Amino acid sequence: MTVAEKLTDFFTISERLECEMRLTRMSNGNEQAVASHSWNMIMMAIALRPYLKNPVNMEAVMELCAIHDLPEAIAHDIPLHQQTDEVKQQKHLKEEQAINSINSLLQDEHIIARFNEYDLRQSPESKLVKLLDVLDTGIQHMCCKDLSYVGSFQNNFYWKLFFSDSFANAFDCEPILRSVYDEVRARVAARLKQELGIDAEQFYKA
Questions:
Q1: Between the chain's N and C termini, which has fewer beta carbons within 10 Å?
Q2: CATH number for the domain including 8?
Q3: What is the average pLDDT across 13-42?
Q4: pLDDT tens-digit series, residues 138-156
Q5: How many Cβ atoms sit within 10 Å of the Cβ of residue 57?
Q6: pLDDT score for 2
Q7: What is the pLDDT of residue 107?
Q8: How many other C-beta atoms lie within 10 A of the C-beta of residue 118?
């Protein structure tokens, strides 16, 4: 295959991220695409950059945002509530196979290095990107057309996670991120009470 043929094949794979849907919903009521999720993370990184306490390589951050879910173009997204220990192991294996398949087209070890960097979460950039990954879910809770799609699913599985102080404390490494997360959490709590009659206070301290 020529380089042009391989790149074109890669572009047909990456396009699938626009078709791969997540559990979260958008302000128009539609499911969120994985590609949209990655794009939102890039926008957050750009907006937050002047306020970050810890210096990061923004080029690396943006690459990680774009690449972190790339294997899902082949391996598909799995909602968090379905991720048992066994499913997580299978998911990790499928994603490794997917990224290797993608790299067979690109023949660029930089792609695998970035994916592994995110997977290990040891660099400041990968740690920041993971927080942006989590924050985007909260933003979708805040922006979605209505919260009924989450409701009290599996005994409030997602609300217990989202509102817990232990979950929020992960953002303490970056004061601006903690401030934003707390603001998002407060707005979602107000919507939850108004729309579904669920008091978020019961989920704090978890």
A1: N
A2: 1.10.3210.10
A3: 96
A4: 999 999 999 999 999 999 9
A5: 12
A6: 93
A7: 86
A8: 21
98-126 pLDDT per residue, tens: 999 998 898 888 888 998 999 999 999 99
CA-based nearest residue to 32, from 77, 88, 65: 77
Picking from 22, 56, 52, the residue whose alpha carbon sits closest to that of residue 39 is: 22
Rounded to whole angstroms, the Cα distance separating 169 from 158 reads 17
Answer yes or no: are the C-beta atoms of 189 and 163 closer than 8 Å.
yes
Residue 199 in tokens? 């008091």
DSSP state of 147: G
Q: What is the H or E stretch that residue 21 is in?
A: strand 21-25
Q: Which two tokens stand for residue 18?
A: 């626009």
What is the tens place of the pLDDT at every residue in 151-187?
A: 999 999 999 999 999 999 999 999 999 999 999 999 9
Distance of alpha carbon 158 from alpha carbon 151, whole angstroms: 9
| Residue 104: exposure state from Cβ atoms within 10 A (0-12, 13-18, ≥19) | exposed
Domain that holds residue 24: 3-203
Dist. CA 19–CA 32, nearest whole Å: 9
AA letter at 133: D
The secondary structure element, H or E, covering residue 57 is none
- Give me the number of domains the chain comprises: 1
